[in-house]
Amino acid sequence: DAKTTQPPSMDCAEGRAANLPCNHSTISGNEYVYWYRQIHSQGPQYIIHGLKNNETNEMASLIITEDRKSSTLILPHATLRDTAVYYCIVRVAPGSNDYKLSFGAGTTVTVRA
Amino acid sequence: GAVVSQHPSWVICKSGTSVKIECRSLDFQATTMFWYRQFPKQSLMLMATSNEGSKATYEQGVEKDKFLINHASLTLSTLTVTSAHPEDSSFYICSAMDRNTEAFFGQGTRLTVV
To answer: What is the pLDDT of residues A67-76, one digit of tens each?
Structure first.
């Protein structure tokens, strides 16, 4: 019972912005949107998360629609090292008794020179 | 971000033997740890959740007697694959968090059973 829907793959050019969409139409009011990525043969790496406001950190920006039914992860200047599988996950905040990180299929992002 | 160390990075074992994988949180106390398994070209599958000092909670379909999880301290959890068989060959990944942080992941352990 997938909570998020992501495109299976996308290509982007090195140096350009990469916009990764995610649909989460059944998100609950207390659920956050989290993004992780997994570079081949490594453990997942936390990127960013948000509840309803847009967020930015040194890695990426997260844009969440006003109805919270979808979001976009933006890698502002993609590099070859950003090639990875990107996972969009909805879950309750840390501190909740029902905390689990369940991974869907994710989006395989290939950055090309 | 916080550091989670997993050991070993890879292991090859003979069929029928047991293998222990360690997961340590190096700079924070992990009240909760998660164990995942990932087969080639597939996503991570949650196997079990463990809270420090408690028995692990296993996901449906995961054999608790085969995959023994111990979370005896706030910085260490272990996964023991007992009587390993070739079909247990996989990439095992742990994740750790305390009550108010995000989940951080280890680098994974590649298990090959021959």
So the answer is: 999 999 999 9
Amino acid residing at A107: T
What are the pLDDT digits (tens) for B44-61?
999 999 888 888 999 999
Pairing of strands B104-105, B90-97: antiparallel
| Nearby residues of B69 by Cβ (< 8 Å), 6 or more positions away | B35, B48, B50, B56, B77, B78, B79, B80
The full DSSP string for A3-17 is S-B--SEEEEETTS-
Which of A1, A45, A103, A107 is most worth mutating to test chain B (most B CB atoms within 10 A of its CB)? A103
CA distance A40 to B13: 23
Q: Give the closest of B6, B46, B101 to A100, CB-based.
A: B46
